Amino acid sequence: MRRVSRIAVAGVATAAFAVSVSACGSSSTSSSSGDDKNLGLALAYDVGGKGDQSFNDAATAGLEKADKEFGYKSTAVEPQDGESDADKVQRLESLAKQGYNPVIGVGFAYAPAVKEAAAKYPKTTFGIVDDEQTKADNVADLVFSEEQASYLAGVAAAKATKSNVVGFVGGVDVPLIHKFEAGYKQGVADTKKGVTVKSQYLTETAAEGGFSSPDKGESAAEGQIDAGADVVYAAAGLSGQGVIKAANANKVWAIGVDSDQYKQDALKTYKDSILTSAMKNVEGAVYTLAKSVEDGKPATGVVRGDLANGGVSLSNSNPVFAGNKEMQDAVKKAEEGIKNGTIKVQTS
Q1: pTM for the whole thing?
Q2: Where in the sequence is the domain holding 253, given as residue range(s)?
Q3: 198, 248, 251, 277: which one has the fewest Cβ atoms less than 10 Å from its Cβ?
Q4: Which of 116, 118, 127, 99 has the alpha carbon at shortest distance from 31?
């Protein structure tokens, strides 16, 4: 997720995002178990788990940075198929009881569980990624303006398309993913008139595999490509790997999500087909929350990452994209417009 200075540097984004955190609450580096030593950060992964080359792996990078800097021995726990909210609560409470702090639920599905666990372990700081409805004194809601990065992805897609048909594949039909679609469509429409955006959601619920089924992503992308799309943007977690595979097989462009997917080892076979990625700095959010606990000033409340503070961005790793002045100028202009408020990006 690294970019050249023309658009913003992700390494700087982590620091900028850290500055945006509002730290409050009393010092707490021990759990309700009574242990004096904080074992470190604990992640409870969302569907797809570690190795998704996207959302969960970005959180893992934040954990690894905290471990290296603070000497932690952090842990991360994989999700189980068909698990209930009660299962999630038990997982989070177990981590807090063992002495991990902060404990972070990676994904909006953890919101009810985080709220319940946080009430039982008030001395532990909890985090929830992609949800801002928890409203507890010891919870940080780590959220992002995904629509802004998606708008930039739409600008890039509109500049790249030759067929005037582009695609959007959403993992699950939920409000969070609607933000990606809305921003993308607006970016396309504002950049080039007459471009058709074909949209498809893989499933109605996460339990059906919308975020964890590359085969579903591949099939959806194939359908859009057959219908003329020569750029396809996926906001679908692990399922997005299938979209990228289909784009590569058909010699069209894919746009990745969450992390800089051009740089992902698991996708290196297809990287030349990844035009760019709409990123959100989950790595920075996870690390910054851990640092706030380490510093004795745990962050709580809504912590939002956007273009202005480096919490979201567009990757610039593919030399084809980085070296295309027309695309770069268009993205830069759009980014400035979003930052200064002349462009209002829709969320639905």
Answers
A1: 0.86
A2: 146-279+311-340
A3: 251
A4: 99
